[in-house]
Design goal:
By secondary structure, this protein is mostly helical. The protein has four helices and no strands. The longest helix has 20 residues, at 16-35.
Amino acid sequence: MSDTPARKDPLQGVTLEALLNELVAHYGWPQLGRLVKIRCFNSDPSIKSSLTFLRRTPWARAEVEALYIQLKTPKPARPPRSQTGHGNAPRVLFGRKPSDDQH
């Protein structure tokens, strides 16, 4: 056996209903409907109708589960701005270009 802990499956022990409730709480129905283009998310959405559809439609369930895994996967932390290779370069603000007829 290895001393390194196995990566935990984000779907382990999570019911489809709990997964869907968390996605709706995080994204809301409108955004969820844009991310996963299925009618039950866009037209009169409800947990009950969505669960019925997702249980009967493997491709849609796979997309919803993939979105949940993406939500639960920790993102690598961005390095502080000074370590990104840009140093302390000043920000350049671009204004309007002066037109030739205004002198």
